[in-house]
Amino acid sequence: MAKLVSVSSYNTAGVGGRKPLGKASPLANSFSLIEYDKDHRFLIMDCPTNSTIPLYLKEFARLNVTDVVRVCEPTYLKERVESRNVHVHPPPSVLKQWRELVITRVSTPRSESESSAEPSTIAVHCVAGLGRAPVLVAVALIEKGMDPLDAIEHVRLKRRGAFNNRQITYLAENYKRASGFKGAAKIGSAIRSSPLNGASSAQPSPVSSSGTQSDKAAAPGAGHVSSGIHKSFFKKMFGSH
Question: Where is the composition biased (Low complexity) (predicted)?
């Protein structure tokens, strides 16, 4: 398994499904491009710093990144990113804000000249890019119609080590689509050929902020997870921002 670090060996394009960089870069292990279709592209990464942000900006330009969603404490001046016409978003307080951003970017009409150009990308980062950021990308894939376990493994094929057991349990058992999409977009049985680090649906549901009741047990009947549960989940996963 490739070690995921911010500054590591050079010329490691393709390791663990990572997006090959334009040139040899000390950030070769930092980026994972997750593609669902030509309109749904996400770049999972670890957190930039003021010293490394110029290298990130080069990749943002190459991959046509329009937005950066930060799900950790700030580690760089957002003005340096926004000066390149890239919007920097603070951590979403509820999943609804993340879903709305994805819908807004995907539904933006593209001109005929833009349709043949590099599609836009939403970048997401937490501290190491292994937990909070992959969760948001998996949510976007599930909302598109992908089966939750397929979404988890689709992300993991590109970013090894993503998700802990609590996050897997939440996505696989507790998260309910808000899009109303009824189908399940399968991406191939080979995706599920290996276990998810021993995780299974038999795992106990994550404990809520009260420490006594699971999110699943607290979820209302059949359909939607309440905003209170989403806030509880985000507080546990993201902390206070």
Answer: 199-210
